[in-house]
Amino acid sequence: MKLSKTSEYALRILGFMINSEKQVFTARYLVTYLHIPDKYLRRLMTDLARNGFIKSIQGREGGYVFAKNATTIHLSEIIDAVEGMDKYTGCLLGLNNCSDDSPCSLHYAYAPIRNQVLNLLDTLTLADLKSLKIKRF
Description:
By secondary structure, the protein is mostly helical. It has 7 helices and 2 strands, in the order H-H-H-E-E-H-H-H-H. It has helices spanning 5-17, 27-34, 38-50, 75-82, 86-89, 107-123, 126-131, and strands at residues 54-57, 63-66. Strands 1-2 form a two-stranded antiparallel ribbon. A hairpin with a 5-residue loop joins strand 1 and strand 2. Helix 2 (27-34) crosses helix 3 (38-50). It is elongated and about 60 Å long. It starts with a helix and ends in a 6-residue tail after the last helix.
């Protein structure tokens, strides 16, 4: 399972910002440092602000800053806010009706792995990422 560009970028943005969580970040700075296309980053920042993770500060010294405590922001919430979790909870082969009652050929092999990944995304917070001292974004 690979994250979509949308989820990847959202996690990279917030994962980077959390290392200086009180700092105000401009979109221009984030675009330059993270190498995310400007239009894409600005749309994500709007989505992240609309969902209460960050807030926009207007004016000359404006930019984006966290609106919530990093210990309360789970990775699954970020993904759900920017694109939804359906892509990550569904069938690996993309079938609409894949369950224990009507499994695809990979269902029983993939379900435990999918559940582990979903559990990781549900339990890991931005504060956890900060404690790992990651330097690549």
